[in-house]
Specification:
By secondary structure, the chain is an all-alpha fold. The chain folds into two domains: 1-45, Homeodomain-like (Arc Repressor Mutant, subunit A); 52-200, Orthogonal Bundle (Tetracycline Repressor, domain 2), CATH 1.10.357. 75% of the residues lie in helices and 0% in strands. The protein is built from eleven helices and no strands. The radius of gyration is 19 Å and the shape is elongated. The termini are far apart.
Amino acid sequence: MKNTKEKILETSRLLFNEFGYNQVTIRMIALKLNMSSGNLNYHYKKREDILEALYFEMVAVFDERVAQLERQKISLSMIKTDIKTSMQRMVLYQFFWTDLYNLLLQNEAIKTHFQNAYKQRKQAYQLLFKMMIQANLLKKENFQSEYDYLIERMISFSNTWLYASSLYQNNTINDVYIDNQANILLTMLFPYLTEVGKVEF
């Protein structure tokens, strides 16, 4: 059974996704939960505290998967599964990704973590590419920083696909759409794959 804090976070997340973070007030959240604003304030002093809690709840799973990377057997199938899992989790916290720039400006703790996470994601990609080269799935770089540029493109797409989807996708984001977005991201690797990698692709 969920405790009160968990209920507040879940309800807030759903309201933020529906209306946008800046359109939802503590009063709206309390009304949805059939509790007083004072009772809600006992658990979270202000709306920004809820935002922080949701952000760190979301990224805890991402951080854990990055930490597990070295222990995984690398394949393109595994990479695609990981991409889809990340995208599905992003959809659960859609409000954050569709208003990323403004929310980072509003909260220093989130901004600091996000910037540090960006460095960790680059390192994780570098490790992934090294493992793919060792598995004969990925070619060696043709020039210095070639894969750094590829990593930048892949991270940029990962951060913005959901925002772009909110602009162009009228329907609910479903598994078929997520699969398509995962394919778009994975296809960025195709020109760099070895013959073995292309066959697996």
